Amino acid sequence: MKNNVIILAGGQGKRMKSNGPKVLCQVQGRAMLDWVITACEDAGIEDICVVKGHMAEMIDEFLEKRGGRANVQTVLQSERLGTGHAVQMAKDYLEAHKGGNTLILCGDAPFIDPPTIEGALELHTREGNSVTVVTSEKEDPTGYGRIIRTEDGISGIVEQKDCTPEQAEVKEINSGCYWFNTADLLSVLFELTPNNAQGEYYLTDCLGLLIGKGKRANAYTSENPNVSLGANDPAGLAYLNELAEQMKK
Questions:
Q1: Which is catalytic among the residues 15, 30, 66, 69?
Q2: Domain that holds residue 91
Q3: Which one of 92, 114, 123, 124 has the lowest number of neighbouring Cβ atoms within 10 Å?
Q4: Is 30 a catalytic residue?
């Protein structure tokens, strides 16, 4: 069974002051979603599911015009109840791909790259992991979930607001990119509960559920320091454009 990818693209991004979905905001003249799909295609993953939400018809129009090498289908997240809920909307897609591995990406993190996707998959398959989290190192990790490593893998991800002082010192952060064994993901995906401050279903909670079932979780540290970067407002988008310009040189 071929490996596949789910791209989360349902966000409205109110602070972006955009008239369309956040993932269609442009970096160097290209929608952020286009950057992400192209990275998947260049890594040899051409079976893609895009989870759309806010102004979904614009996502459909973009994908139709884009074309490309990938077989791209979409599912609708009519209510935005968190990352775990978004992936739940792709249940039928996941069921059809039970024999392989599923990559989950954020459609508004344009600097994910093929070496990171391929390197994380190699670690994931070599170790027989249920889940492999893509991470990066940040001098100032404020605001990001911290990776808690053990002797033979990781024990979980702790969000900023839940960190102990010791955990807050950890500089390895969650990029929001994951490889899952597809069947293992399905085994816990609908056990998620919204028992948190946001009242949302967090995909990161799947790690604890899988580890609790005796499954293996580990992290792959990307050499790309920008792999986790997204934009929440026009200033953040301008910064991504500046970075992309520097990357061309």
A1: 15
A2: 4-243
A3: 92
A4: no
